[in-house]
Every structure is written in C-alpha cells, then in structure tokens.
Amino acid sequence: MPVPLTRSTRRRLVGAVTTVLAVTLGATALTAPVYAASVSGGALVANATTATDPIAYPKSSRLVGAGVAGFLTTSNAGITTFRRYSDGTGQAYDGAVYLRSTPTTDFLVFRGAYGITQRNLATNGSLEVPVGSLTGDAKWAGAAGDAVFTTIVTEAGTVLRKHVDEAPTVTVTGLPADAASVMVTPATPAHAKVTFTQNGLGKWGLLDLATGVLTPGATGIGAQAVSATHTAWSTGSATDQGPRVFVADRSTGTVQEAPVPPVPSLGNLQVGLVGDWVLYGQKGGMDFVQPSVHHAITAYNVTTKATMKVLDHAYEFTSAPDGSLYARGGLVGRGEGMYRIAATGGEPLKAELVAATGEPTEVVVTDSTVPPAVLDLDQVDGFTFRWTLSRQVRNPKLTVRHVRTGKTHDLTVVPSSSTPALAWVGNNWDEDVPNGDYTWELTGEPVNGIGPAVTAGGTFKVVRKAQPHDFNDNGSPDLLSRDSAGRLWRTDLFYRPIDEWRGINEAGARTYLGSGWGVYDRIEAADNLGGTPVGDLLARDKSGVLWLYQGKGTGDFAARAQVGGGWQVYDKITSGSDLTNDGRVDALATDRSGVLWLYTGTGNATKPFLPRKKLGTGWGIYNDITAVGNIAGGTAGDVVARDKDGALWLYLGKGDGSFAPRTKIGSGWNAFRPLIAAGDADGDGRPDLMGLGASYQTPKLYKSTGDWKVPFRTGEVMYLEQVNANTSDLVF
Q1: Taking the complete model, does pTM exceed 0.85, yes or no?
Q2: Over the Cα atoms of the chain, what is R_g?
C-alpha cells in the first residue's frame, strides 16, 4: 500500500520552512532577503528587460535555471545562488536547490534527505513534501511549474505524483508501471518533461501540468527541447557522420531536420527552442581541446529555413517561462556571461547580454612583459617577452623586425603547460641585432578555434655604447680582412661560446664588402673619427696619401675622402683610443726612426686630425702597436706594444696624450700576426684584445680585467672560419 502524503496548512508550513532553511543553508546563507521585487496582483513583475547594463555574473558558475525575475547559478564549490535580473543581488544556499516557474511566479525548491520544501518567492508561502529512503517511502522525482513530484513504488508498479500547494495530490497517468529512474523537469509553462528508463532503454514524455496526463515522446534521442509549438532533439555521436538535429511540429507531427554540418563532433549537441527557431551547438566552453564547426550556437528557422549564428559558444541552455532561452556562453566582441535569446516577431534572433563575467570570449593578452621603449643592451642582458593570456593558444609566433634594415626574426615562443601564458627569453636571437628601432608582433591561434587569433605588438629601440670595431651597428666588434686579390671582408666577432669548458668561441661568417682594396699598403680600423656613431677606416695608398672611409652602420663604408699626404714616412699606424680625454678618438704613428707621433682627433670628417705632436722616441723596438682603449680603468685610452722578442708592454694613457712608463704584461705574443683592438667583445663594458695566429696558430680573444697589473685574462680560442686559413690576408 502507498504511504499517504500529508499536506500541512500554510500556517504550519511557514514555521517548517524556517527550520528547513536553517538546516540547509548553513554558514553560507547571505543576509540579503531572498527576493524583494515588486508584487502586482500576487505575481512577480519581471524586470530583466529594464536593465540598461549587464549585471555581474559569477565566473566559473553554471547556469541552472532562469525564471520570471531571477536566475539560479551553481559554483564549483556546490554553492547555489538565486540572483535578480535587476541588480544581480540575491541569496546563496548549500545543498540541492532548484528554480521553477510559472508564467508569473518563481519558486525555489530545496531538496533535503527527509523533505522537499518549495518556497513561493512572490508570496513567501511554502509547501513541504516529506520523502524518505526506506522501501515504500516517497522519493524525489523533480519539480516543474508550481508543482513538486515524487514517486512511490507500489505493488502495481511505479507511481508518479504531483504536489501543489492548496491542491490535492494528483497521480500522473500514462507512466508505465515498470518505469524506473523517473525525473521531472520543466518543458513549457504548461508542460513538464518526464524522462525514465523502461527495460533498460531511455525514454521520455510530455506531462500536461493541468491534467496530469503523460504523453510518450520519441525514443532513442539525445538532448531534447520543448516549446509551446515544437519539440527538438539531437542524435548521433562523436564519430561516424556527426550529430543530427530534428524538429517536430507539435500540432501536425511534421518532422524536419536542421542543417547541422555532417562532420564528426566532440559529442552530442545541446538543443533549444525559441519561437520558430531551433538552436543547437556543442555543449561546453573554453575547455574545448580542438576547433569544431559545432562550437558556435546556430539557430535554424523551421518556417523560413534561414540560419544564423547566435553565440560563439555556450556551456548550457535553460528555458525561461516567457518562451525565451538563456545561455551561459560568449560572443566575440561582447564577452562571457549569460545571454537572453528571444524571438522578435519574425526578425533574426537577438542575443542580449544580461549578466557579464567581465571575461572576453576571444583570446586576449591580460598581462605582458616586453622590452621597454629604449633597451640599452649594455645594461640589460638580452630580451624578454612574456604574455599572460585569457586562455591557451597554439602555433604562437613572435616576429621582431629591425626597421632600418627590414630584417625580421621569427622567434619561437614557448606556451606554458599549466597556465595560458607565452614566453621568449634570450640574450640575442643571432649575431645580427643592430642598434635602432624595432617592431614586434605576437600571434597565436585559440586552441578551440573560438574567435580570431590573438595579436599584440609594439616598438622598442636598441641602443649601446659605440664600439671602435663595430661597423654594422649591432654592438659587437667586427674583424676586417683583405685577401691577396684585394677583396675586403668583414667578420662579426659576436661573442658566442660554443665550448665553455674549453673556452672556444665562434664568430659569424665573413661578409664580402668589395674589391680594389689592393691599392693600399696600410689599412687601420680607426673607431669614430668623422662624427658618425659607428667606426671608420683609415687607408694609406702606396704614394702616402691617407684616406678616410666613414662607416655607415650597415657593415660597409661611404666613399673615401682624402685627409692628408706624406704618411709614407710611418711604418706603424693605430687609432681607436681617446688619448687626450676630450671625448674624441686620436691616432698614433711611428716613423722609421722610432719617433712616436700623436694626431689629436677633431671629430670632423673633412679634417679629422690636428697637426701632429711628437710624444717620444725609441718606439722602433716594437713591431706592433695597438690603441686598445681604456682597458685599465684610468683617465684615458691605453696602448699595448709588442717588441721583436714577443714581449707585450702596456702604456697607460695619462689623459694629455702622453703615457706612464711602460709595464711588461706578458710574453710569447709573437705567436700572433697583428694584435687587434677588438672593442668590448664579451659585453662586460671593457675593451678586449685579439691575437690573430701566425702560421696557422689559433686566434685567441683576451678579455680585459680592468686591472692594469694583470690587464687580460687567459686567451680564449676563437674560430674565424676562412680567416683562420688565409694567413696571407691583411687583418685589421
């Protein structure tokens, strides 16, 4: 025999619901009233359409119900909240809570272990329905409209019952006696959808809420939707021919199929109905792992056969009692949140953003670390690009372009495995990072294909202190060489360790600069003599005329200009140090009698030197002198000189063009041909020295220490490609 259900009087229920809520809500209940909207004739006044701006929608919360005057969300923590359309405020609850509505009234249904409490949000009246867990007890079966439903298993089979305040309990007819797993959910204001299993098969039907009669629906279907005029359902799986969506006219029974793209899907589609439109799309959101044509929410008009995209994606649909559809999803350009989709009298559907999370639907950069407007690579060790994104992307690409040369670098940025982020951190992308203006652009495709690729861009300027041997303006010194055919070559000495344990470093490949340089018997890299920010060349022809080639900053040189005659009296010439402490580069020359002469620089390309000044005698003992710059931390540039026995001597500049007494700083330097003032090859702010090997000896780089007593570290092997083998080349 069935266990009778008792319906308490309203007076008793008011006290009972207070007790149930106190137990159900626990500590998470908010202090605000559940509902405070106006009441007109006992009905809630809907005010969703009066809001001019979207209210707040809680991030990462599911939409589980939409009523007349408010909606219901559930968080990942299991907290359910009823919120007003008008301002988004409301009440939070623990446990199982459902929103059910008639065309005029909202109800909250609280499901407990021993009782179901339904609260009328317009009148504050309550209905209590006892349930239990023992055999023969009434079991929760759902709610729809203003009714709560329970099932009881009797000798005759499963019985579905409807409970409405102030009305007798009604037994639903049409439910098979062997039905199991019965669940009642809203369909239309006049009908509920009843799902159940029979002989292991899933089935469903429409329940007339007024008469209590259940009419069976179609079998073997997936998602279902019901409106006052149509039913819709999806079939198919993630494989084979993909999902399909069908729509049936409830009055005629005519069935037609919506034009769903016949390609495999990530799963069954969700469906919804609004007027003459059926809406369908993949259920889910930003957690898609691949693009799909089914991600977008598409609407198909069963009368006009028109189709349109309504949203770019939706996590879930829920129907409202006024026939509209609410979707928790997103639209590119509008963002994430809750959208209301309603028919507009034959016009295309309109998706109105009712509540916003503040999150974009498309991928956007939310935070970044990029090079500053001016990037001083003497002070900062390389480049840093980092971006935090709103979600994951794939195939990210960073393109950096040097404006003056037009050279671009496509850099591989690494996506984070745990967060939507990208990063590229490095010293340099290769040996060619010239000073000057740069642009950068980032692109990345959303992993789920929703929305356009993310793009970001900007500009920055690379600056460095000018280097005496930097002819292509990239901050690293260059080695110039002339082969036996009179051709001029440039080798970038970009400091790039290739074997740190053995101290081996690699330079860039040789670049051809031109021919006809065989007319000169002396060529000297001279640093900035003419006022440009890059190094220049001095070249003496065989008649003793001295020529100046100004650097252009691109690795080659401007047309030559004559700057003097009679220079054939000198057997050694060097330039590259500021010996007079006036900020300009000077030159030194020794004549064949061993006299050392100073040519003070002017910074003027047409007349780069003042008349010569005698500094001293006895310099004929040296076979090489090199102006190395300020290697010892003094007041001015310094000079190193190698004698015929291979001993190396340091002359510290005093700042007035003269030098302190010489100091021996090493021996065995006759293993090298020329000694090259390499400039700051390793980026430590101090000029370095290079020795080019004689008779196939290995070239080495000697990094300066800043200590005049021991000015150079142990030599590190340099690999200079063709320069190593061409010992007949003139190298400078």
Answers
A1: no
A2: 43
